[in-house]
Design a protein that fits this description.
about 270 residues, 6 helices
Length: about 270
């Protein structure tokens, strides 16, 4: 008989499976989606360096926005600064979500021609693909001086992500990490804080790697994982803010891949 086997990763869509299946006997095809996901959990040094370079290009873009910011800028102006740096650095922009004022409460929204005004929160969540590997990080800006509510909420989400980073290590239970991170944000200034997850694996471009840091994930953190850890906060009509870092998990903690400060960045 025919002993050939073709493994297909079906995590994106089923087009490859469907095309190959047209000319193959059903027993020749094997679904290897779960096996590929398990393999991608841990990163080799070369993979880590590509994630690190993709992250550095986003960091550079955020720092350029802070340096070049001027009254009258639009969300698109800031997105253009970040995107240009990605391309100049040899990367392909993956997403550049620049939202301001009330729009900053809209997760993963595109930048628009809206001009920022004093008092606006500006939430920037961006990533690119460098030699096949992705970045994903975020920081929050404020045009002028933050008011008491903005400062309190940012302090709360910063407390949450810094707790998350303080406790991450090999063997940590994912659901426990989620629950405790949410608790810390609530206790530090946002009692109503809710999230679906507080991070995810990252690596090859095109989607999350395992694990997603959610309360429903029955998994443990493992050394060698690249993770994005995050504590976004969105309130419709008020705005949104976000801190997201990328790390490499080690046996006793983590190696930072994102390196810029987690401050609420005042511009203008």
């Amino acid at each position: 008989g025919d002993a050939r086997t073709i493994g297909i990763d079906r995590s994106g869509d089923d087009r490859a499976w469907a095309v190959i299946a047209e000319g193959m006997a059903a027993h020749v095809l094997t679904d290897i989606t779960a096996a590929i996901a398990r393999t991608r959990r841990h990163k080799l040094p070369g993979e880590v360096e590509r994630v690190r370079q993709a992250t550095r290009l986003v960091e550079d873009g955020l720092l350029k926005v802070a340096d070049q910011f001027a009254p009258g800028m639009t969300e698109l102006d800031m997105a253009a600064i970040i995107t240009a740096g990605m391309v100049a650095g040899g990367a392909v922009p993956r997403f550049v979500s620049v939202t301001s004022g009330p729009r900053s409460a809209l997760a993963d929204a595109y930048a628009t021609a809206r001009r920022v005004v004093p008092g606006d929160l500006i939430r920037i969540d961006a990533g690119c693909i460098y030699q096949g590997y992705a970045s994903d990080m975020a920081r929050t800006f404020v045009f002028g001086t933050p008011d008491a509510g903005q400062a309190r909420c940012h302090a709360a989400i910063r407390a949450g992500i810094e707790y998350e980073l303080d406790v991450i290590r090999d063997g940590l239970d994912v659901a426990d990490l989620f629950n405790e991170t949410v608790r810390v944000v609530r206790e530090n200034g946002i009692p109503s804080y809710r999230r679906q997850h507080v991070g995810h694996g990252i690596g090859l471009g095109g989607g999350y790697d395992m694990p997603v840091l959610s309360p429903h994930t029955t998994d443990s953190i493992e050394a060698g994982m690249c993770l994005c850890v995050e504590t976004p906060y969105y309130r419709i009509g008020w705005g949104g803010m976000m801190i997201e870092d990328t790390i490499l998990v080690t046996r006793d903690g983590y190696d930072p891949i994102t390196t810029i400060p987690r401050d609420l960045i005042c511009v203008g």
